[in-house]
Amino acid sequence: MSQSWIMIDYGVGNVFSLMEALKRCGIECTLTRDPQHIKDAKVILLPGVGAFEDAMKQLRKYKLDTILKEKKEDQWLVGICLGMQLLYDESEEFGIHKGLGFLKGRIVKFEDLSLKIPHMGWNVLNQNQASHPLLKGLNSLDRVYYVHSYYASQIEEKILVASSDYGVDVPGIVMKDRVIGFQFHPEKSGQVGEQLLRNLKEVCV
C-alpha cells in the first residue's frame, strides 16, 4: 500500500487551512475524490462543516460512502469536526439520518438552553486516557477550538480519548482500532492543534 495521506474532496467545508496545518507538521496530503487514490492511501482524512444530512448526500453523490465503507483493515480513517460525526451510526440533526457506521453512537443537539449554541470557541481538553499516544506532549489545561451545535452521545466509553465540558461531556477525541475522530478543529487550535497533528502522524504508521 502507498504511504500517502489523502483528504476526501466532497465539497463540504474549507479544507485548505487544514491542509496547511498538516504541511506545517510535515504531512503531505492530497485532496481527492478519486476512488483508486482513496483505496491506495495509508491515511484517509474526512473533514467537514455544516449539516450532517447535506454532507451524507454529498458523499453518496460521489459514491464515497461506499468507498469509505470498503476501507481496508490496515488503512486509517480520521474524521474532523462534522467528519467525525459522520463516522457514527446516525444523527438527529434536522431529522434522523444514517451515518457511515464506523462508530457506535448518535449525534444529538445540546439541550441546555442556558448554553450558547453553537459551542464555539476555546475549551479545555480533558484527558480521559492520559497515557494515550494521541495526547503526547499535552497537559491538563490545554485548550482546543470548537465550532458545533451537535455532539456524539451513547458512545462506547472505552474509545473516548479526550473530552470537553459544555454542560455535558463532549467527546473531543475518539479512537477505535484504526478509526479516529476529532470533534474540534486542530487546524484552528494553535500549538496544541499542531501537537495533536504531529501525534496523529506518529500514531498512523
Any descriptors?
alpha/beta, Rossmann fold, eight-stranded mixed β-sheet, 14 strands, 24% helix
Which strand order does the major sheet show? 2-1-3-4-14-13-12-9
For this structure, what is the CATH class?
A: Alpha Beta
CATH topology: Rossmann fold
Number of helices: 6
- Going by helix content, strand content and strand pairing, the class is alpha/beta
Give the total of domains: 1
Strand content: 25-35%
Taking the alpha carbons of the first and last residues, their distance comes to 12 Å
Please identify, by name, the CATH architecture.
3-Layer(aba) Sandwich
Q: Could you give the order of the helices and strands?
A: EHEHEHHEHEEEEEEEEEEH
Topology:
Layout: E1 5-8, H1 16-24, E2 29-32, H2 35-40, E3 43-46, H3 52-61, H4 64-69, E4 76-80, H5 82-85, E5 88-91, E6 97-98, E7 103-109, E8 119-124, E9 126-127, E10 143-148, E11 150-153, E12 160-165, E13 169-176, E14 179-182, H6 190-203
Parallel strand pairs: 1-2, 1-3, 3-4, 4-14, 5-7
Antiparallel strand pairs: 5-6, 7-11, 8-10, 9-12, 12-13, 13-14
Q: What does this protein structure show overall?
A:
It is a single chain. Helices cover 24% and strands 32% of the residues. By secondary structure, it is α/β, with parallel strands linked by helices. It has a single domain, classed as 3-Layer(aba) Sandwich (Rossmann fold), CATH 3.40.50. Strands 2-1-3-4-14-13-12-9 form an eight-stranded mixed beta sheet. The longest helix is centred in the C-terminal third of the chain and has 14 residues. The model has no long low-confidence stretch (mean pLDDT 95).
